[in-house]
Amino acid sequence: MVAAIRGIVKSTGGRLTVCSTGAFAKKALESCPATLRDALTPLMRIIEQLTAEIRQYDRLIEHKMKSEYPETAPILTIPGVGPLTALTFVLLLDNDPSRFSKSRDLGCYFGLQPKQQGSGKFVSQLGITKAGDQLMRKLAVQCSHFMLGRFGRDSALRRWGLALCLRGGSNAKKRAVVAVARKLLILMHRLWKTQTAFVPFPGAQTVPQAA
Fold first, then answer.
1. What's the pLDDT at 171?
2. Of 165, 159, 172, which is closest to residue 201 (Cα–Cα)?
3. What is the spatial distance between Cα 174 and Cα 194, in angstroms, rounded to a whole number?
């Protein structure tokens, strides 16, 4: 609906202010052309109502996670990973981190591992297998997009993903997003299993602050 309203305004030569979806109903109405304001106001109200409903669902998910699955707390220390992703991840693994002895198996389990085709001399990588749960795969990819985006916090994983984007090719960004999503699943399982917080730069020495 947000995209539809922006398209309607753009078709008349106007532009709406850049803002988040949560603040769209209020800020977009202020910058809406006067000729379209009466027609778009009902749609703005619907967006505002849906935003409030989504926030209520977010609060329910967060409450359930804290009350019934407190062991998911280390996963939330990863910038870009929210309650829905953490809770979905834990429930799909039957709330049992020992189900996988090796964290790197999670990439294959959720279908983010590239398929391979060999001819005897060469091994070429194809698209991902897309095995496993589709929702978890989408959530991991969304988190990966955020980590690599302009709002993502600096970390070793982000730098690694951005380096993959610079390798060139029309699909470099897509491959980087999938690769970061695969590593993110591995990291989530490791933090959940060890109950340790996320460290942006593992192995880096802490520089003492000046007095």
1. 85
2. 159
3. 30
* pLDDT averaged per 10 residues, the chain (length 211): 93 90 87 91 93 94 94 95 96 94 94 78 74 95 95 95 86 92 96 96 60 38
Q: Which tokens belong to 42?
A: 């009902």
What does the alpha-carbon distance between residue 24 and residue 45 come to, in Å, rounded to a whole number? 10
Burial of 173 (0-12, 13-18, 19+ CB in 10 A): middle
Whether the CB-CB separation of 187 and 198 falls below 8 Å is answered with yes
Calculated CA dihedral for residues 160, 161, 162, 165, nearest 10 degrees: 120
pLDDT of 119:
67
| Secondary structure string (H, E, C) spanning the chain | CHHHHHHHHHHCCCCCCCCCCCCHHHHHHHHCCHHHHHHHHHHHHHHHHHHHHHHHHHHHHHHHHHHHCHHHHHHHHCCCCCHHHHHHHHHHCCCCHHHCCCHHHHHHHCCCCEEEEECCCCEEEEEECCCCCHHHHHHHHHHHHHHHCCCCCCCHHHHHHHHHHCCCCCCHHHHHHHHHHHHHHHHHHHHHHHCCCCCCCCCCCCCCCCC
What is the model's pLDDT at position 170?
A: 73
